[in-house]
Amino acid sequence: MIPNFNEEGLLPPGVHSATLEEIKERFGRENSQRRMLFEGLTRAVRNLREAGVKRVYIDGSFVTDEPFPKDVDGCWEADASIDLGKLDDVFLDFSDRRRRMKYRYG
After folding, report:
1. Per DSSP, what are the bridge partners of residue 76?
2. What is the C-alpha separation between 52 and 5, in angstroms, rounded?
């Protein structure tokens, strides 16, 4: 369950487990900007799962009360079981301020 925001419009510190559906209900439906970002997040998570990634962390303004976040910040846990051949190469490219990743996934 995703906890309520504090007075500053932020989630309390810590890791809060949630399904994609819970993330959509809480953060991905309010307006067209949030819907577009959630669609990109869904595509990204789909690729990460296909490659064997088991856990993805979401952070940044997308998971705050900011009405129009610019992007979704996130990271994922890597281990030896991940099939790098199935992983979209943009997830390994941190050059150019991750423009390719933002273009592909929002």
Report:
1. 56
2. 32
H-state helical runs in the chain: 20-27, 32-50, 99-105
Give per-residue pLDDT as tens, 22-44.
999 999 999 999 999 999 999 99
Token digits for 50?
A: 């296909």
Tokens of 60: 């940044």
Task: Give the domain ranges of the chain.
Answer: 20-105
Task: Tell me how far apart the alpha carbons of residues 11 and 89 are, in angstroms, rounded to a whole number.
Answer: 31
Q: Are 88 and 104 in contact, with CB atoms under 8 Å apart?
A: yes
Show the tokens assigned to 36. Answer: 């577009």
How many residues can be counted in the chain?
106
Location of structure tokens 């790098």: 84
Please state, in angstroms and rounded to a whole number, the distance separating the CA atoms of residues 4 and 37: 21
CB 50 within 8 A of CB 19: no
Q: How far is CA 74 from the centre of its chain?
A: 5
pTM, two decimal places: 0.92
